[in-house]
Amino acid sequence: MFRRFIWKMxxxxxxxxxxxxxxxxxxxxxxxxxxxxRRFGGYKHRTRQELKLMDEQIQDLIVACEALVERSQSQQAxxxxxxxxxxLRNNGARIRxxxxxxx
Length: 103
Hints:
By secondary structure, the chain is an all-alpha fold. The protein contains four helices and no strands. 16% of the residues are buried.
């Protein structure tokens, strides 16, 4: 009882809930990115329009992932968010390279 009171006074409950929400968002973003990148498949034989749409989707996810990096409360969540951000940026670069080669 006393411990619960101290936790509430120190707002630890709120911090734990915030970390849980961030972890949930990170989980959802990872799942979404993985599914999207699998659907994309290869970039080599795509039309310019398809590549442009893919690039826009990747850029939207990069913005969302950057926000997760800024809000990460734990080192584990920060590492996961940064790894996801690197993966998205890598795929974005591959898409842009495919656009240049297809031009």
